[in-house]
Design brief:
61% of the residues lie in helices and 5% in strands. By secondary structure, the chain is mainly alpha-helical. The protein has a 5-stranded mixed β-sheet. Helix 19 runs antiparallel to helix 20 and helix 25 (418-430) runs antiparallel to helix 26 (434-446). The radius of gyration is 33 Å and the shape is elongated.
Length: 585
């Protein structure tokens, strides 16, 4: 092998003073011969110089190993560091760690269990190797396994008492970043171990925007939406610039919870940071404002988006539909198609919902036919639900047979969904067919399906309040129920009569009226009367659909007290509904 003259660093211009220790002499000479960021051929040339001077001894070889950069995955490249490691006079942890650092993936994983010497820092070198591979190939299936292996290595480090040891970040420029620990975070999040990921995150001495966005995304993935928003706020308070991933994830959490003020806070972060309006970000903002009851703000964002994807169009169409702007939603759909976009199943949920809320029966039937015949989209549970609302509100107008048919079809399409059984039972209850109600309840029991506990959620001055049916746990419960009695008295004087068809038990009317007045929506409205100033809209989010009586109750509250009420239900469904009650509705 021919070697040219190695490039000399400034230190090489001074003649080294050799000592009795060959390893020390080798370190001194390498410092003079090698540039600040050597590549493989620099190290090979330096090795040749050591050999000529008689300094290439076994105890000096680990110094050459430490000087090597990370190498590509070729047999020629990784054979050299392996030969250095084998020829060393003894297998030190120093040599083992640098071997892990320079070898290409997946060699470090294969060699790690067989290394004769390791120390607490070896875990960090291995994780650094995994992180480099993930950066180069983040989409490959093996990357997912690598992330999980990274998490496994971290668990081993915990057992060894080295989980928080960041010595390597201080000593080695090649891994002086948080990519290693971000790899561990991602591994735990993808494995569904968010609590463990949070422990790692809290123990990290160094964090970047990826660290924060990973934790925010992990909480959203696990449904801990309020915690996710709290982490996002903490990130902003600590001065970390939020990346688009964290922003979009936080907007999704606010949208799912229906918390407008939280969503506005995230939007303000976007404005202050000067984040460009990408398609993902714009669509997330449209979705958030639509689901939080501010369709006007959603339309403003939609109109200024430089480019729009199908998700943005779907969010705007569904937002207009759920706020009772059915004609606008249908017109936007026609514009969507005319611009060459292909509608999806969600698009037609929005269109059918628009027809349902505007009474466009013929148009709804035509769009359902168009969906199947032109676009080849099969009808799903959400489409049948919209058609049920469109063709007849069965419970109110007495079309029991049609309601039973649709209710059974919904149960057939989605047996685990408790709401379909409740719908069918309520239709039977409206017709006073109590034996059939009991059969539906028995069917639910036999299939292991239970009715989800209903709640109503509201946000006041950045604080989220959640009420259950008959809730007495709130600190202001006495004031709330006193206010509820006042509201009930005023509504009764105005002629309000409770709709008892939503009570699915064969009990007396007096007991039914009492049960209705304990609905979580009633309690939430009463509390908003106490804490929300007159003239501001009352915003409520429900996890279940609005029952017939709560619908009438909200209408009467608006009529008697002049308060605008916006209720959003079914927050986790693509066809989530929003009901706006104002004077004249």
């Amino acid at each position: 092998m021919q070697f040219g003259t190695p490039p000399l660093s400034p230190a090489a211009r001074r003649a080294p003073t050799f000592q009795a220790d060959p390893a020390a002499d080798a370190r001194q000479l390498l410092g003079a011969l090698l540039p600040p960021r050597p590549v493989l051929h620099h190290v090979l040339q330096a090795h040749a110089c050591l050999a000529v001077l008689g300094l290439a001894t076994a105890c000096a070889l680990p110094q050459l190993l430490a000087a090597l950069p990370r190498l590509p995955l070729t047999a020629a490249s990784h054979s050299y560091p392996l030969s250095l490691f084998r020829c060393a006079s003894y297998a030190s942890a120093f040599a083992s760690n640098h071997l892990l650092r320079v070898l290409p993936y997946p060699l470090p994983l294969r060699l790690f269990p067989r290394l004769p010497r390791r120390n607490p820092h070896s875990f960090t070198f291995l994780l650094a190797s995994l992180s480099k591979h993930l950066n180069a190939d983040p989409t490959a299936a093996i990357s997912i396994a690598s992330r999980l292996m990274g998490a496994h290595m971290h668990m081993l480090a915990v057992k060894a008492g080295a989980a928080g040891d960041l010595y390597v970040f201080d000593e080695l420029p090649l891994v002086r970043d948080v990519v290693t620990w971000n790899t561990v975070l991602v591994g735990y999040v993808r494995a569904g171990m968010v609590a463990v990921a949070r422990e790692v995150f809290d123990g990290m001495l160094m964090r970047d925007e990826v660290s924060w966005s990973t934790v925010v995304g992990g909480y959203v993935k696990e449904g801990e939406l309020e915690v996710a928003l709290g982490v996002f706020k903490n990130m902003v308070v600590q001065g970390v610039k939020a990346n688009e991933a964290a922003i979009v994830t936080a907007l999704s959490a606010a949208a799912q919870l229906g918390l407008l003020e939280q969503g506005k806070f995230v939007h303000e972060v976007v404005k202050r940071a000067g984040v460009a309006m990408s398609m993902n970000l714009g669509a997330a903002l449209v979705d958030m404002y639509s689901k939080c009851g501010s369709v006007a703000a959603a339309k403003e964002v939609f109109d200024v988006m430089p480019k729009r994807d199908v998700f943005a169009w779907n969010s705007m169409i569904c937002g207009l539909a759920t706020h009772g702007l059915g004609h606008d939603a249908v017109q936007l759909f026609e514009k969507f198609v005319s611009e060459g976009f292909c509608p999806t199943s969600i698009t037609f949920v929005g269109v059918l919902n628009a027809c349902s809320r505007t009474g466009l029966v013929d148009e709804g039937r035509w769009y359902l036919k168009l969906m199947a015949e032109k676009y080849g989209i099969e009808s799903e549970m959400e489409h049948y639900g919209c058609m049920f609302d469109l063709l007849s509100p069965c419970k109110r107008h007495g079309l029991v047979d049609l309601g039973i048919t649709v209710g059974n079809k919904l149960i057939e399409l989605d047996p685990p969904h408790d709401g379909h059984y409740v719908l069918l039972a309520s239709i039977y209850a409206k017709a006073k067919k109590w034996d059939e109600v009991r059969k539906v309840r028995k069917l639910m029991s036999n299939r292991g399906t239970s009715k989800l506990a209903g709640w109503s959620l509201m946000e006041v001055h950045g604080i989220v309040h959640k009420f259950l049916v008959g809730d007495m746990d709130h600190k202001d419960s006495i004031q709330i129920y006193n206010m509820l009695c006042m509201i009930d008295r005023r509504l009764a004087e105005a002629g309000y009569v409770p709709d008892m068809s939503s009570v699915l038990h064969d009990i007396g009317d007096e007991e039914k009226v009492h049960a209705i007045k304990l609905h979580s929506e009633w309690i939430a409205i009463a509390y908003e009367f106490i804490v929300v100033e007159a003239g501001s809209p009352i915003r409520i989010v429900k996890n279940l659909s609005v029952c017939g009586d709560c619908h009438e109750f909200s209408k009467m509250v608006t009529k008697v007290f002049g308060r605008e009420i916006i209720v959003r239900d079914g927050t986790m469904r693509p066809d989530a509904t929003a009901k706006r009650y104002s004077r004249g509705t």
